[in-house]
Amino acid sequence: LRGIIYHGDNHFTSRIISRQGQIWYHDGMLTKETCIEDGTLEDMSNKELKECQGKDLIIAVYSQV
Q1: How far apart are CA 47 and CA 63, in angstroms?
Q2: Does pTM surpass 0.85?
Q3: Phi, psi (deg, nearest 5) at residue 53
Q4: Number of H helices, E strands in the chain
């Protein structure tokens, strides 16, 4: 898993996941070009991954290493 796109209130946000499992949150309207550290994949439950800031998961992005 390398990324997740969320949607709600006619707005998209995302979480980007590094190879080391570090999660970064991005919301172009609020954070502009900055990504905010948002925990690790290891510490986040499936429920926490399915929703972010009140928005629902719509796309999961995977990459083969």
Answers
A1: 21
A2: yes
A3: 55, 40
A4: 1, 6
